[in-house]
Amino acid sequence: MVKGIAKYGFKSGFLPHPRQILPKLKTSWEIEEEAKRTVAFEDPAMAPKGSSPNPPPRRQVTASEKLSKSAKPPTKPKSLNTELQQWKAEQSLIRRKYFVDAIEAQQTMDKKELQIRERQFREAAERRQQISTEHTESEAERLTLPSIDSVFNEPFVIPRTPEETEELRLKRTANRKTLELRNSERKASILLELYQSTSNYVITEEDLDKLVQKEFVTNKGDQSRDPRVPYVTGSDTRQEFASTFGSSVYYDSSSQAIDSIKQELLGTTSSMKPGLGEVEDALSGRTQQWKETSHDSR
């Protein structure tokens, strides 16, 4: 007993909620909304064999149909010989009568409720219509609603016009050619540096003897360097030894910076010979043309 009334706050006398015997009547607009939510096959060919692509809406059960199935009168007369049989027949008749009365009462209440909901729906629709006709558009709505409509109605990605597509193609082509030109100039500068540095290569025994004599005899008194690391000259040679032996190679960083500045200002290579720009001008004839023009101006 205590467990049964605990969920009601230990208060007795609470009756359970009445059970809905008949299905709830639906208004016209509720039936339309339910029809929209009905799952069906968009392509009739995809419907299973023996089934309809559009299932029919569910039919509402009336009170008479419910009574005809649940409160049928006895088909065969029962024997009423004893008092017990008579009492059971009377109880059965009373239960059937109460059930019929409950069904009819619920049907009456459902119809009244349906009329009230229909009236409330019509009144709400009339009020919305009246408000929409009497409403004057404000400045905020006039400026905001078009932008909101454009967000939901227009496509998220606007396709390019033929002019924009052609402009984009030309830009990509120009960027690609510019990058190719920079790479070609860088490769040409590296090749020019390599070509000019070949003049310092040791290719004979006489050149090797001269270099050994210069390094180990002429610079014998140089004490400003680490004796474990050979003394090197020239920016290219210093960079080569630095990449080979690491930062322990001795060289003057300020001298290297000055060499780099000279190369940028004079347009020369690391060996202080003509750079790529001067070579290109000489090969194209611009240098000769400039000399002739300056000579004529004098």
Automatic annotation (TrEMBL):
<feature type="compositionally biased region" description="Low complexity">
    <location>
        <begin position="70"/>
        <end position="79"/>
    </location>
</feature>
<protein>
    <submittedName>
        <fullName>Mitochondrial 37S ribosomal protein PET123</fullName>
    </submittedName>
</protein>
<feature type="region of interest" description="Disordered">
    <location>
        <begin position="36"/>
        <end position="83"/>
    </location>
</feature>
<keyword id="KW-0689">Ribosomal protein</keyword>
<feature type="region of interest" description="Disordered">
    <location>
        <begin position="269"/>
        <end position="298"/>
    </location>
</feature>
<dbReference type="InterPro" id="IPR058940">
    <property type="entry name" value="mS26_fungi"/>
</dbReference>
<keyword id="KW-0687">Ribonucleoprotein</keyword>
<dbReference type="Pfam" id="PF26163">
    <property type="entry name" value="mS26"/>
</dbReference>
<dbReference type="GO" id="GO:0005840">
    <property type="term" value="C:ribosome"/>
</dbReference>
